Amino acid sequence: xxxxxxxQVPSLTDGGFAVPAHRLRLHDTGTGTLSxxxxxxxxxxxxxxxxxxxxxxxxxxxxxxxxxLVNRVWRDLGHRVHYVQNATDVDDPLxxxxxxxxxxxxxxxxxxxxxxxxxxTALRVLPPDQYVGAVEAIPLIIEMIEKLRAKDATYEVxxxxxxxxxxxxxxxxxxxxxxxxxMPLFAERGGDPxxxxxRDPLDALIWMAQRPGEPGWDSPFGRGRPGWxxxxxxxxxxxxxxxxxxxxxxxxxxxxxxxxxxxxxxVATGEHPHARAYVHAGMVGLDGEKMSKSRGNLVFVSxxxxxxxxxxxxxxxxxxxxxxxxxxxTQSDLDEARARLARWREAVQAPAAPPAGALVDEVRGHLARxxxxxxxxxxxxxxxxxxxxxxxxxxxxxxLIDALLxxxx
Length: 409
What we know:
Blueprint: E1 25-28, E2 33-36, E3 42-47, H1 58-76, E4 80-87, H2 92-101, H3 105-122, E5 130-133, H4 138-150, E6 155-157, E7 160-163, H5 179-188, E8 204-209, E9 224-226, H6 228-240, E10 244-250, H7 254-269, E11 275-281, E12 284-286, E13 289-290, H8 301-306, H9 311-319, E14 327-328, H10 331-348, H11 357-368, H12 373-384, H13 393-405
Parallel strand pairs: 3-4, 3-10, 4-5, 10-11, 12-14
Antiparallel strand pairs: 1-2, 6-7, 7-8, 8-9, 12-13
């Protein structure tokens, strides 16, 4: 699947600033601790993508901007970044929306994926090296299910294939949740805990036998289509292997999606861990509830852009909130971001400004501590409010803001 064009990312080291000596520390959901990432020459990151049955809303954008910061900070630290993202281009919500609207499910998926590409391009999100759809990954998924089956880690219920969570002794370590907390979330987030014939209510569907009127693909376990969690396991292992540095997504993916995906991967390969850290972005709300397609309480990036909103103001409005926080979108978020953008643009167009060295150190330090973008934005605000005599500082600040915050001034 085609990704989207990459923005040019300037280098702070080319501008005379040394590579920082610190490491990026991120909050790992499973342990609940802030831990340093320890990539080798290449850092590996997998971020779960959209189910393309509607346009990109600000909750999506908030998540992908968080991991764009991870990408940018690692690059500034001298790492190459191998970034992989999927798109779930066949799944129940997509098929249901296609039936409701009378549109072919493939046409709907491609239309919304293209709009997602346009939104990510406008927001200057660095693209994945591999952008992989579930449909194109079906051979990989079948191969993974066969590995699980060879290890007696599958069973069937009326033609559907399930993964027994008991096959993974570490099940629960990704989300840090106990069974009592898992059960309602599993039912709420696409699971089927009440299905008769399952060995454990939490066992996950990995291959669904073809239903009338729905798409299907041939496999050794019958014609059908993949479950959701196994999709990301197969794609991530194919392109990143095991024990890559970060798997990310919204906080609603910690369980069951990332928990199940890790178990699938670990049992299939016999290796541990699937990812070294699981990092999750908070939820963006509107009108008192989480912004989601199912609720319909959405603010779309594309709609804001069509109304003439500068994408850099959208990006700044999102970065003004810490990536792990849950917060509610209001018009004031956008108004404040527009005013901030204007102040910053004025500051970098001045003939001189205060020296930028301290600002570079401060922004780098804030982002290295669990992506504290609000503190980084406040540091730029303080710099922009001062006057100075260094003629090189405006250009250096512009480079910093572009390279690490992704804001084109």
